[in-house]
Design brief:
Number of helices: 4
Strand order of the largest sheet: 6-7-1-8
InterPro entries: UPF0234-like_C, UPF0234_N, YajQ-like_sf, YajQ/Smlt4090-like
Number of domains: 2
CATH architecture of the largest domain: 2-Layer Sandwich
Order of helices and strands: EHEEHEEHEEHE
Keywords: Nucleotide-binding
Radius of gyration: 20 Å
GO cellular component, one term: cytosol
Largest sheet: 4 strands, antiparallel
Distance between the termini: 6 Å
CATH topology of the largest domain: Alpha-Beta Plaits
Strand content: 25-35%
Structural class: alpha+beta
Number of strands: 8
Function: Nucleotide-binding protein.
Shape: elongated
Organism: Parazoarcus communis SWub3 = DSM 12120
CATH class of the largest domain: Alpha Beta
Length: 161
């Protein structure tokens, strides 16, 4: 029975390269000289440091194009609240969302069931497996999910006949 998986993954080496490139640009900018502006990368968490909210916004305007150049989807970022550190310095934690969370997985399964397509969808960990009798039905299911879920980066892989 043909099937495919709906998942969400981030290429960690590309993300690391984008963060390093953005840090180099921040270090080279004249308006950031002598400040604590930087980006730290730890597995699935980015931490932006700056002297003010304005600097954090400037760091984001440097980071996001770098991520786009490295083919890292910026929709996977989940911005936390801006926190004050010592004095007037601020930091912001940005989570890198990997995997399809349970709420989105349930939404995808419900979407496919409500569409009356002859496909079955099952949640398997942090992915959704969709199976059907024909490849054409699976391709229609992919098109439907791509059209309906636009706020989260999804990949369709593991396509089997």
């Amino acid at each position: 029975m043909p099937s495919f998986d709906i998942m969400s993954e981030v290429d960690q080496p590309s993300l690391r390269n984008a963060v390093e490139q953005a840090n180099r640009k921040v270090d080279g900018r004249h308006d950031f000289k002598g400040t604590s502006a930087k980006i730290e990368h730890a597995d699935k968490l980015l931490t932006l440091y700056g002297d003010s909210d304005f600097q954090l916004d400037q760091i984001k305007t440097i980071l996001l194009p770098e991520m786009t150049k490295k083919n890292v989807d910026v929709r996977c970022l989940d911005y936390g609240d801006v926190q004050k550190i010592s004095g007037n310095k601020v930091k912001q934690e940005v989570k890198v969302r990997v995997g399809v969370d349970q709420d989105l997985a349930k939404k995808i399964v419900k979407l496919l069931k409500d569409s009356k397509m002859k496909v079955q969808a099952a949640i398997q960990g942090d992915a959704v497996r969709v199976s059907g009798a024909k490849r054409d039905l699976l391709q229609e299911a992919i098109a439907l999910v791509k059209k309906q879920v636009t706020d989260f980066p999804l990949q369709f892989g593991n396509f089997r006949d």
